[in-house]
Structures are given as structure tokens and as C-alpha cells.
């Protein structure tokens, strides 16, 4: 689900079904349910509020 949120945040013109299939979901309805359970909003709502997705998917920074 984290990969899906990251793809939604950075893919301006990608369809949600393409993102679901890229994350190995074969059933779009199941993908929508899982996304909503994990992040509290549907993929469509997340795409509309794409600025909030950066808060949903924290960036991991590695310093050496």
C-alpha cells in the first residue's frame, strides 16, 4: 500500500487501475478497500488531495 500511495503522489496522469495493477492487485475493488483501510481515504480522494499523500507516505532518509 505504501508503494501505491507513493505512485499516486507522484503520478500526475496515471490511472488508479494502472497503479493497482503495478502493485500486484488484480481486483480494483479490493485495492480500493485496502487503500481506504490503510490510509483512511479512497485512492480517488487521495489523488484529488495529492498534497496530503506526502504526509501519508513518510520519506526515509539514510545518512552515512
From TrEMBL:
<keyword id="KW-0238">DNA-binding</keyword>
<dbReference type="InterPro" id="IPR020449">
    <property type="entry name" value="Tscrpt_reg_AraC-type_HTH"/>
</dbReference>
<protein>
    <submittedName>
        <fullName>AraC-like DNA-binding protein</fullName>
    </submittedName>
</protein>
<dbReference type="InterPro" id="IPR018062">
    <property type="entry name" value="HTH_AraC-typ_CS"/>
</dbReference>
<dbReference type="InterPro" id="IPR018060">
    <property type="entry name" value="HTH_AraC"/>
</dbReference>
<dbReference type="Pfam" id="PF12833">
    <property type="entry name" value="HTH_18"/>
</dbReference>
<dbReference type="InterPro" id="IPR009057">
    <property type="entry name" value="Homeodomain-like_sf"/>
</dbReference>
<keyword id="KW-0804">Transcription</keyword>
<feature type="domain" description="HTH araC/xylS-type">
    <location>
        <begin position="1"/>
        <end position="49"/>
    </location>
</feature>
<keyword id="KW-0805">Transcription regulation</keyword>
